[in-house]
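Input record (one chain):
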Amino acid sequence: MFQPNHQFLISPRALNPVERNDPFVIAESETQKEEFRKVEFVELQDDLQNLGLRIKHHEENIKFLKNYTKSLDKSILDIHGTLGKYHSSEVKNENENSNHFQTEDTIEQILRHEKSAAALLYLLKTRHGSQAPNLPFTKDVLGTVATLGRVDNDNLSRILSEYLGLETMLAIVCKTYEGVKAMELYDREGRINNSTGLHGLGSSMGRPMDGRFLVICLEDLRPYSGEFVADDPQRKISLLKPRLPNGECPTGFLGFAVNMIILDSANLSLLTGSGHGLRETLFYGLFSRLQVYRTRAEMLLAIPCISDGAVSLDGGIIRSNGIFYLGSRKDIEVRFPIGSGTTNLPLDYIQAEEKIKQMKWEKERLLEDMQREQALVNHVKSKYDSKKQEFVKFIAQSSHSPFQNQVPVGRDRSIIHR
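The corresponding structure, as predicted from the sequence alone:
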């Protein structure tokens, strides 16, 4: 018959109720508790020290970023100083004031579309001036497509405006997606809340929004990723000229539409969060490699080397391979303003302006890094405070134990007083 192996049975002593009061058992249990307290004490203190080091690390990062930002500000001021008052005022006014009248004409064209979102924005600027850019749904707005660039002749203005169409010319351009979201809010059922955003603005002005409107988010556009024309004050992108099968450039080819848009100094210095300008985001997204020809006849002869569409100054439009726009040209009511793209600025001035632009972009990135570091240090401080309360509570609960004076060697008692 099978005999049980008694060596694996629980000791009779452990089953004897009398042993619960055995002083040896009690002493062993208390020793174990003290050992657990020591381990917990060390773990809590290590946690506090690690959190303290993390706080110090983030605070040092913030200090470094602040000092770097100050040095950039100083460098920007120094460069402005070397440019001199003449270049910072007279040259700027020469470039901007000469095109002011044409831009005002374009805004007048926009305002005629009374129920459009673009008209509401410019009407808001007219009535409320400096307050307009501070509103949640306008502070991220750069303008409309029609007002963010110029061209150097009327025919080019007409054909590019017709190519894009009225809806795109009136499109509102935002720098970030946050600006796009602020323009239109919805209720729980997904219906537009007409009392907020641009819809609320239209209602308050007696011009309720009519239909859809187009908004373009710069940071979500896929930018041009190639090279730029060296030493070009307009920072044109470097695109290879089209070539016929015989290797020659087509007769009548004037250039790519994306490079024929003229940007003023303010728009040239504008950069997205990833460091891209208007030309390689907005206008490259709208035109891509759209070719511009002098005449329709010359454009049609160049069909073998047209891949992303083409237009001609006399009204021809090829949307893409195999898609032609025929019939009489149509004048779009909102067109690009006309202005000269030439500049008398010396090369060192252009390089200095480019350096300032890059520094300002770098400063924006530093400010974003500081915000992230501040959020991290606030989070770690919150964890530190919570762990400190836990540590103090542990010390209080252990105050009647002989363990209270057994602080491990090398441990810093003062950490709870941080």
